[in-house]
Amino acid sequence: MEYPSVSHVLDLRGMECPAPLREFVRRVTPLPAGTVVSALVTDPGAEIDIRSWSIKTGNRVLGVAHGDGYREIIVEKVR
Predict the structure, then answer these.
(1) How far apart are CA 34 and CA 52, in angstroms?
(2) How much is the pTM?
(3) Tens digit of pLDDT for each residue in 52-72?
(4) Which of the 8 DSSP states describes residue 10?
């Protein structure tokens, strides 16, 4: 699957719940609509949290890739 170009990479590896979601929201909220963000996380709960936040706020998870000990979550900010 092809994604729009990622314009921001958030390295949230090493953070434990709830820190990855808090930092993700803090850094994504001021970005304009249409921005595509890559969040790198090691906390397995962060994927669930970011998906839930995206649904609640009307944003969109474009995909998740698994790296060596981490996950990359691609999110498009719609609002």
Answers:
(1) 19
(2) 0.91
(3) 999 999 999 999 999 899 999
(4) E
Domains for the chain: give ranges and CATH numbers: 8-72 (3.30.110.40)
Q: Which run of H or E residues covers position 24?
A: helix 19-28
Report residue 67 as tokens: 């790296």
Structure tokens at 21: 């979601």
Rounded Cα distance, 15 and 60, in Å:
23
SS3 57: helix
Cβ-contact 40, 24 below 8 angstroms: no
Q: How far apart are CA 33 and CA 48, in angstroms?
A: 22
